[in-house]
TrEMBL record:
Lineage: Eukaryota, Viridiplantae, Streptophyta, Embryophyta, Tracheophyta
Family: Belongs to the iron/ascorbate-dependent oxidoreductase family.
Residue span, Fe2OG dioxygenase domain: 187-286
GO MF term (any one): metal ion binding
Alphabetical list of PANTHER family matching this protein: 2-OXOGLUTARATE (2OG) AND FE(II)-DEPENDENT OXYGENASE SUPERFAMILY PROTEIN-RELATED (PTHR47990)
Family matches, as InterPro entries: DIOX_N (IPR026992), IPNS-like_FE2OG_OXY (IPR044861), IPNS-like_sf (IPR027443), Iron_ascorbate_oxido_reductase (IPR050231), Oxoglu/Fe-dep_dioxygenase_dom (IPR005123)
Protein name per its UniProtKB record: Fe2OG dioxygenase domain-containing protein
UniProt keyword list: Iron, Metal-binding, Oxidoreductase
A Pfam family assignment: 2OG-FeII_Oxy
Length: 331
């Protein structure tokens, strides 16, 4: 069922002797493990002072970390459990079926693995994914109706959670309270189901190469295997899995919208040695013609639309193997 990574990317592995002289190639093992700021969202439903404390912690985490975890969130555990189970089933089909038969009946290119544009080993991701624009979830056929139902249930609750959090964060940086309601429609977000197969070369290759997310906000549901790392204060830090919590991170669009008050932090996933790892990411995104412009002046970024941003990401990835990101739009 695993994609033929080694076979397809053999030339990159052969060049690796030279590449591994690069010091970052030895940085896979990081001793430091951290607990991300943990925010109990239940307090949003309690009295004024509890709510204010919760809001304060969320804004502080978004400023200082760009990453946090939430518990007592709006996504029921049963929905998370069922999507995890269905995701596992979908990935456990033979590779040829996933790659050639479009089993979920999604748009072309929804099933992805490795990085077809990688020019060196550091740009390879030893993982496979189903990338699902939410406009497409209804196309999933009846053979996968429980997957379709869990995706739809998850997407509905995840969209509500991201909208509520985005509004709380936005208020502090002058973004209109109706921005998300007007620009983030039920079908404009994306879901990505990720699987990281066991990797015999885990000291040489990433599970998911370092990147920032192109979203406004991202929700990640990771399993217990671990491997997610974020870049903080000049080093990589392991994010300890917490089974009760969802990981939330600021995406590129919110960084620009907040004029860098909130940071879209670089993160990556180490390839597991023995176990397979699964994660699910929900990318909260606006329509393509949504204009991203900070209310904080002077603005560091020129005004751009989400569509323009994605087109730039596509061009950069095609040309260099990796994304440049929001710095492309600096004034
Ligand atoms: O697998 C993870 O924990 C993170 C996934 C991720 O960063 C992504 O899909 O953008
Ligand atoms: Fe990510």
């Amino acid at each position: 069922m695993d994609p033929p990574f080694h076979e397809k990317y053999k030339p990159l592995f052969n060049n690796c002797v030279i590449l591994s002289k690069h010091k970052d190639d030895f940085l896979m093992n990081v001793d430091e493990e951290c607990e991300l700021p943990l925010i109990d969202l239940q307090r949003l439903t309690l009295n004024y002072s509890e709510r204010e404390q919760c809001v304060k912690e969320m804004r502080q985490a978004a400023r200082e970390w760009g990453f946090f975890q939430v518990v007592n969130h709006w996504v029921p555990q049963e929905i998370l459990k069922s999507i995890q189970l269905e995701q596992r089933k979908a990935f456990h089909h033979p590779f040829s079926k996933k790659a050639e038969e479009n089993i979920l009946n999604l748009s072309a290119n929804s099933y992805r693995w490795g990085n077809p544009r990688a020019t060196c080993l550091r740009q390879l991701s030893w993982s496979e994914a189903f990338h699902i624009p939410l406009t497409d979830s209804s196309r999933i056929g009846d053979a996968y109706k429980s997957l379709r139902a869990s995706i739809e249930a998850f997407a509905t609750t995840a969209a509500k959670l991201t909208k509520d959090m985005a509004e709380i964060l936005a208020e502090d940086v002058g973004v209109s309270s109706t921005f998300f309601q007007e620009n983030c429609l039920p079908g404009t977000s994306y879901l990505r189901m990720n699987r990281y197969p066991p990797c015999p070369f885990s000291s040489k290759v990433f599970g998911l190469m370092p990147h920032t997310d192109s979203s406004l906000l991202t929700i990640v549901n990771q399993d217990q295997i671990g491997g997610l790392q974020l870049w903080k204060n000049g080093r990589w830090i392991n994010v300890k899995p917490n089974p009760e919590a969802l990981v939330i991170n600021i995406g590129d669009l919110f960084q620009a919208l907040s004029n860098d008050v909130y940071k879209s932090i670089k993160h990556r996933v180490l390839a597991p040695q023995q176990d397979e790892r699964f994660s699910l990411a929900f990318f909260y995104c606006p329509t393509c013609d949504t204009e991203i412009e900070s209310c904080i002046k002077p603005s560091m970024y020129r005004k751009f639309t989400f569509g323009e941003f994605m087109e730039q990401v596509r061009k950069d990835t095609q040309a260099t193997g990796s994304k440049v990101g929001v710095s492309r739009f600096l004034m």
